Amino acid sequence: MTNRETGTVLVKRGLAEMLKGGVIMDVVTPEQAKIAENAGASAVMALERVPADIRRDGGVARMSDPEMISGIQAAVTIPVMAKARIGHFVEAQILQALDVDYIDESEVLTPADEAHHIDKWAFTVPFVCGATNLGEALRRISEGACMIRSKGEAGTGNIVEAVRHLRSIIGDIRKLSQADSAELFDWSKRLQAPLPLVREVAETGWLPVPLFCAGGIATPADAGLVMQLGAEAVFVGSGIFKSADPQPRAKAIVEATTNFADAHILAKVSRNLGEPMVGLEMQGLDTRLAERGW
Amino acid sequence: MLALQGAFGLHQKVLEHLGAGVVQVRTPQHLAEVDALVIGGGESTTMSKLADASGLVQPLAERLVTGMPVLGTCAGMILLASDVMDGYPGQHCFGAVDLVVQRNGYGRQADSFGARLSMKLDSWQDDFEGVFIRAPKVCEVGPRVEMLAELDGSAVMCRQGSAVVCAFHPELVDDDRIHRWFLDLV
Description:
Radius of gyration of chain B: 15 Å
Strand order of the largest sheet of chain B: 1-2-10-9-8
Radius of gyration of chain A: 18 Å
Largest sheet of chain A: 8 strands, parallel
Number of strands of chain B: 10
Strand content of chain B: 15-25%
Largest sheet of chain B: 5 strands, mixed
Number of helices of chain A: 13
Helix content of chain A: 40-55%
Helix content of chain B: 25-40%
Oligomer: heterodimer
Strand order of the largest sheet of chain A: 8-7-6-5-4-3-2-9
Structural class of chain A: alpha/beta
Order of helices and strands of chain A: EHEHEHHEHEEHEHHHEHEHHH
Shape of chain B: globular
Largest interface: A-B, 44 and 42 residues
């Protein structure tokens, strides 16, 4: 048999490339996973509670029950992702053993380590990590993340934080690509990110991995907004299954993500979707999930 | 470039580098502007549903019948095959290449891999680095299909007339020979 190399950087980052332009939806049951797949989701995130419920219930949020993840894997043919706690490399080992397609080392769960993220190079399964700014994104990439997503503020249905994070990451990439070679040392120091990665971003004008958006997307217009700002795909957590009528909303967000720059199509798909999820103001929050991670 | 979902940006970069003019196709109007089409990797179920929503199914089928040159990689291969296993009921197969393919036939992401492929094309001396990501597996090959590369007994690159399909991702590697060869066909 021909030699097959698995778990290479190309293979791991490659799947992120294939998810571009798509919508990754949080689901908590096989039935929801089917609804997401039927609506055109490019992948699903299997978890026990959507972020809005984790926020409401409080307590320690952990990796989901493997039985529940396997049930969702059996229900759909699209990629299935699952979340591990920040720094909890054993949860990640278990998720890899379950053959999930992507692991989200996620601030939505309660962190397991206050200083260290998972060494993601040690895994064949690819990882996505959240970031609020360019330095955080590059630190996660240096640890082996193959996809970055804005953190936003999960479970709020409020897009403002995701916009802040995307603008910060993309704005700094723009500034970095204008910097001269001497300035890159200072950029590396200020971003607290490795110089070779800083140089790579300065040369290419983009991250070495895809940049997706998560945290607060609730409407097709929200998806259009973050895609026009420069996100390459979107994660929708509570925004679909906490809305009044998930199936049409899921389909509308998928169409909006593809046609993000066409206001006529955005207007068409935004009609008659029923009530979106109830949104939360930032100043009313007890816990800021985006502050988790270092 | 069919730009409904997936890695179309990478294909676009290669094609533009080779001097081709590229239009991102999301509507029937866009499709009418192009001479040839590339359908890249992504999720075939997602693309199939978006093709329905955008009204592209019938115009695309008509263009393919009249022999528009087309290159399909991974999900593109699935959409251009004549039949798909493990798709959803009603998933579109445009039948430009007479193949039966199985979605994710090589397994989940853990089984995604890279492998050196020897190409059955005149003057292609060197191997091509095939990157297979949750790739489709060709299960049956019709009589009019020319096999251009195979891996352990399964076809991984095929041609029928002006339609070319591969199970792997030439857009992910630093080797533009397949794109160049396709542009020569066009």
